[in-house]
Amino acid sequence: MRPIGLTTKRGRNKYARERDGELMLIHQCTVCETVVINRIAADDSAVAILALFGDSHEPTAAFQAKLDSSGVSMLTAHEHDLVRRRLFGGSAMGTAGGSSIGSD
Length: 104
Hints:
Layout: E1 2-8, E2 23-28, E3 35-39, H1 46-56, H2 61-70, H3 80-88
Antiparallel strand pairs: 1-2, 2-3
């Protein structure tokens, strides 16, 4: 599996804004191309996650259709502030260290 982007977990609160859920990684299998979402681990690098986000918000139309059919909504460039708040806290501008974000 390789990380390809970010999304948010769908909450159960029907009155919540669409993107109020937990920040999640989108992974794609390098063999069968299956798409899954996974929680961000405590030891994942926030800086690496932010870099992944920076590279991920322009999927092709065909890939976006695949995500849509999986029920996954990739975060886009206009949600940059949301991603920074989730990774670094309210108004935090610092960085966090940790391990890489890849998985098996």
